[in-house]
Amino acid sequence: MAKFHVLLTDYAWEELEIEKQVLADNDVQLIVATAKDEDSLAALAKEHQVDAIMTNWAQVTEKVISASPNVKIVARLGIGLDNIDMAYCTSKGILVTNTPDYCLIEVAEHTLALIFACARKVAMYHHDTMSGKYDLSAGPIMRRMEGQTLGIVGLGNIGMLLAKKAKCLGLNVIATSRSGKTMDGVETVDMDTLLAKSDYVSLLIPATAETKKSFGAEQFQKMKPTAYLINTARGAIVDHDALAAALAAGELAGAALDVQDPEPCDLTIAPYNDPRVIVTPHAAFVSFESLENMRGRVSQQVVDCLLGKTPENVRNGLTAG
């Protein structure tokens, strides 16, 4: 019988060989949930009296965590922590970890891909062409990307990498920075200035109580009518009803949304069904390399904690033991 038991709430890949191998090598059994609703997860945690919880997208609430008094760590298979009850974990001495640097390249690349798609009308031309409308003049006149301005909301790790790549392509880059971080060649500005100057506004901030729906009617009215909103951060940051209204009013040219709220979103309603909006299924983080790296590291975080060692990337200031 295994010494420790770990509940995996959900995952977004085809197999679990990496997780099983790392855990089994340390006498840890993986309990895989088949449903990710709160009641099902709490029941499974209680049944197996789990020592740790690993989670991808499922909501890990107080009810789920408290179902087993043995829980020592909640480890996020990803970056954002908005699906974990951090306050409860901290109050009970339970470590919360993530992998804040595992998919920086992927998200930066995906953001650039969406910028290119907006600028060069890739989705529109593809749809029209496949529908039998092979006509260059079917779309609006496009502008050269080089020399345009990219405004990055959030100059963190991903924001800085995006800025570096964008500058290599000839884009002017400006940014807001709540943390005070700066970067050579990137002008740090206030939000109003960023919105007024940017041809592309890239959201790269976490979802918190402060940032929830922080991009709404007021912000869209300050954007150029020729500008695009690019969101590869979290869907909750954007007021999507306000975005739909802004698009209808011509306050911005379009949007590219890798993240929505809720997920999956209703593709039959605005803004998602607007032909000026590109939707991808929260795919910015994905690559073979990024997933392999993240899965192994998170599994090792759990092992380290269960063996009494403080793992990497503890986000709530606690230590093991």
From TrEMBL:
<feature type="domain" description="D-isomer specific 2-hydroxyacid dehydrogenase NAD-binding">
    <location>
        <begin position="112"/>
        <end position="284"/>
    </location>
</feature>
<dbReference type="GO" id="GO:0016616">
    <property type="term" value="F:oxidoreductase activity, acting on the CH-OH group of donors, NAD or NADP as acceptor"/>
</dbReference>
<dbReference type="GO" id="GO:0051287">
    <property type="term" value="F:NAD binding"/>
</dbReference>
<dbReference type="InterPro" id="IPR006140">
    <property type="entry name" value="D-isomer_DH_NAD-bd"/>
</dbReference>
<keyword id="KW-0560">Oxidoreductase</keyword>
<dbReference type="InterPro" id="IPR006139">
    <property type="entry name" value="D-isomer_2_OHA_DH_cat_dom"/>
</dbReference>
<comment type="similarity">
    <text>Belongs to the D-isomer specific 2-hydroxyacid dehydrogenase family.</text>
</comment>
<dbReference type="Pfam" id="PF00389">
    <property type="entry name" value="2-Hacid_dh"/>
</dbReference>
<keyword id="KW-0520">NAD</keyword>
<feature type="domain" description="D-isomer specific 2-hydroxyacid dehydrogenase catalytic">
    <location>
        <begin position="17"/>
        <end position="314"/>
    </location>
</feature>
<dbReference type="InterPro" id="IPR043322">
    <property type="entry name" value="CtBP"/>
</dbReference>
<dbReference type="InterPro" id="IPR029752">
    <property type="entry name" value="D-isomer_DH_CS1"/>
</dbReference>
<dbReference type="InterPro" id="IPR036291">
    <property type="entry name" value="NAD(P)-bd_dom_sf"/>
</dbReference>
<dbReference type="InterPro" id="IPR029753">
    <property type="entry name" value="D-isomer_DH_CS"/>
</dbReference>
<dbReference type="GO" id="GO:0003714">
    <property type="term" value="F:transcription corepressor activity"/>
</dbReference>
<protein>
    <submittedName>
        <fullName>C-terminal binding protein</fullName>
    </submittedName>
</protein>
<dbReference type="Pfam" id="PF02826">
    <property type="entry name" value="2-Hacid_dh_C"/>
</dbReference>
<dbReference type="InterPro" id="IPR050418">
    <property type="entry name" value="D-iso_2-hydroxyacid_DH_PdxB"/>
</dbReference>
